[in-house]
Amino acid sequence: MQTERYNPSPLEVQVANAIEKLKEQIEEQLEHNKIVEIKNNTTVDNPQLNIYLQDQDGDQHEVVIKVIQRIDNSQS
Q: Which of 64, 11, 6 is nearest to 40 (CA)?
């Protein structure tokens, strides 16, 4: 199926939402860090997840994930 819209594409939005829903599973993989909050902005060209973490010392950290779908390759 050809992607007709990229800004953002439906697939980008679905992937960003799926990552957000995996918060607990992702947190289990992060040694000495807890996910405090995830801000999911799916209205921008490339959806962005800002993940706010707190380490065992109480320090705050932020990790940013941008979801980018490349233009469909017509070669199959």
A: 64
- Residue whose tokens read 């939005």: 13
Q: Report which DSSP code applies to 71.
A: P
At 5, is the pLDDT very low, low, confident or very high (cuts 50, 70, 90)?
confident
Query: How many CB atoms sit inside 10 A of residue 17's CB?
Result: 15
**Contact status, residue 35 vs residue 23, Cβ threshold 8 Å:** yes
Domain boundaries, given as residue ranges, for the chain: 10-66
| pLDDT tens track for 9-52 | 999 999 999 999 999 999 999 999 999 999 999 999 999 999 99
User: Which residues on neighbouring strands pair with residue 65, listed in sequence order?
Assistant: 49
Separation between Cα atoms, residue 32 and residue 36, nearest integer Å = 13
- Rounded Cα distance, 34 and 39, in Å: 15
State which amino acid sits at residue 48: Q
